[in-house]
Amino acid sequence: MRLVVTGAAGFLGQRLISAILARGSLTNAAGVVTPVTRILAFDKMEAHAFGDSRVLPVTGDIADPGAVACLIDQDTDSVFHLAAVVSGEAERNFDLGLTINVDATRAIMERMRHAAPGAKLMTTSSVAVFGGAMPATVPDSYVWKPQSSYGTQKAINDLLLSDYSRRGYIDGLSLRMPTIVVRPGKPNAAASSFASGIIREPLNGDMAICPVSPKTVLWIMSPEQAILNLLHGHELPRALLGSDRVINMPGLSVTVTEMLQALRSVGGDAAADRVRMEPDPAIEAIVNSWPGNFSAERAHSLGFTHDADMRSIIVAFMRHMGLH
Amino acid sequence: MRLVVTGAAGFLGQRLISAILARGSLTNAAGVVTPVTRILAFDKMEAHAFGDSRVLPVTGDIADPGAVACLIDQDTDSVFHLAAVVSGEAERNFDLGLTINVDATRAIMERMRHAAPGAKLMTTSSVAVFGGAMPATVPDSYVWKPQSSYGTQKAINDLLLSDYSRRGYIDGLSLRMPTIVVRPGKPNAAASSFASGIIREPLNGDMAICPVSPKTVLWIMSPEQAILNLLHGHELPRALLGSDRVINMPGLSVTVTEMLQALRSVGGDAAADRVRMEPDPAIEAIVNSWPGNFSAERAHSLGFTHDADMRSIIVAFMRHMGLH
Asked: ipTM beyond 0.90?
């Protein structure tokens, strides 16, 4: 089994590769569980190779069709496409967002269609495709009204992936992910960056700024859970999926207040007191356009899973970072 | 006021230009009713100039960015973008569909953004963006699940138009049109072509084939009504539109049986007996994926209108064709 992972140097890419190496085998297009012999770990910076000869880091620009052509050939069984421009950056730089989030994704599908027809494409979408007036719990049948360029671009990918799959050009599946909490590393340009920052920074002894109201409701998933669901989606028998290749993932619906209470409970007062509330209208506008709860009926029926509670997300983060 | 009409040689483009000439003035970006001084009538074949010096037919390839650049400049007030590859053709020729229906539309928006920022863009979407399990009457909040490449491409345009408008690059509005009945002229490659054919051909004394079950429910609008709604949308005060720039149009929900009964009532037995039922599974699959009824609440609240009944649609067609 030969895999391609884009965004391989990102925190999800690294965890995905690590999880695949540990697992050793995945289900191929014929439905047969097959040893993974090669993972092309593509990113603009060199991805971690985990000291494992199956992992080949490849650096390049995902917007370069030549790079995509080198990456995917007739031996490619599955592509995990995680490379993306995050929401805040896509809002600031419209052209870059379209180039990376739409054109590069389309180029990957085009290349798969011609070089590896029918290969699996796993990718992630976002709750940012939703917006406007919404019920408190958003059903699977709810319309997409993105209020950001990032959400627009993810919705376009979802449409293209569905059509390429319906036509048999690729075997695509897009998991519409909640906000991923707790991301490791530094704050990034995602409008949702604070959702990890208000947990991560205080646990590391640093101050964090919360730019949204404590009443803000977020739909979240831990990185561990996101990887479990990506692999679950990859392994699912295609007969169960039918033609609908975009699935709202299950998640946890939590308020910022509940997140901070869990932080206080797990990390103590010293950690919780390192969060300063400083509302930022630009970030609040984007974050409040995302729904805080979903029914995710189809995902549940297909066996996708969610985190137990906010406390367990924080404990898992501390364990991962060696803080616990 | 300087306008651009793409697809200007098509039956909707011709009627639109004729209606604009008769009206003489339209509302500009500043909300002021202003005389129309120039209509660039763009199509791959030469559009009708109506013997009117305000109409300048321009021929070219809408997929050529150079042509688009010539068409739209800082003096452009409004673009009516009607050029498209129809559903059957987009299903057969995936690359052509993407090139014309997505890439050319995006190139128009890009050109407007840079050469005529904030100018109005009126375009049409399609009920083909819907599909899968649906309620009998589809609400405005219902998810898009296109089951055809045409529907996918129209949905992508709707997303891009909304984002370009939200960012202030253009002032876009996409009207999600029912199936247009009765189209004049010859059958085309649209999967919905029969819906006009079963009325038009019998009235012209020719045989027509109906490739779907008589129970098939269609959501339809006459060409006259479509033009009225395009102009209504163009004239609407933008404060009423807000950020949601894609509107499900009102229509008539009719069965094929009801259409044929109206044909018999208006055109007589001789006409009605010229329709032969010959189911075509490929066409039925596409047509049955489109909903037969919509609530169209937002359209109603904004003053968009629908045809009175099937009979009046047929009468108007006969009048237009000089058959009545």
From this structure: yes
